[in-house]
UniProtKB/TrEMBL annotation:
It comes from Microbacterium helvum. Keywords: DNA-binding, Transcription, Transcription regulation. It comes from the Bacteria. InterPro entries: Tscrpt_reg_HTH_GntR, WH-like_DNA-bd_sf, WH_DNA-bd_sf. The lineage of its organism: Bacteria, Bacillati, Actinomycetota, Actinomycetes, Micrococcales. This is GntR family transcriptional regulator.
Amino acid sequence: MIEEGRALFLQIAESVEDAIIDGSLAEEAQAPSTNELAAFYRINPATAAKGIAMLTDKGVLSKRRGIGMFVALGARELLLNERRSAFADRFVEPLLIEARKLGLGPEDLEQLIRDRASATAATTEGNPR
């Protein structure tokens, strides 16, 4: 899981976010502790704490004194909105700029996406994973 070239605390925060988004860590559920994360990823507890602090600052996790960290209500929706916005900035905006250069309108793009999605589905259906 650990990626070279990216700050470890960001990777820790992202892995917790991923668990919240995919539902394996539900809202109001107890989040892994700093020590659990440090042991699992074999990193310094201070590094794990920095990732957890980042999520707390964002309002994704909340601390319950004497009990631990918990996923905040609304955390999943907050993260989904954040990721959707980042997706639009990273992929959709450049797509629209290039489409404009090529003279493609929204309907053309929609058809291209539908065609590619169908082709991808057809090729992956025959490939068990």
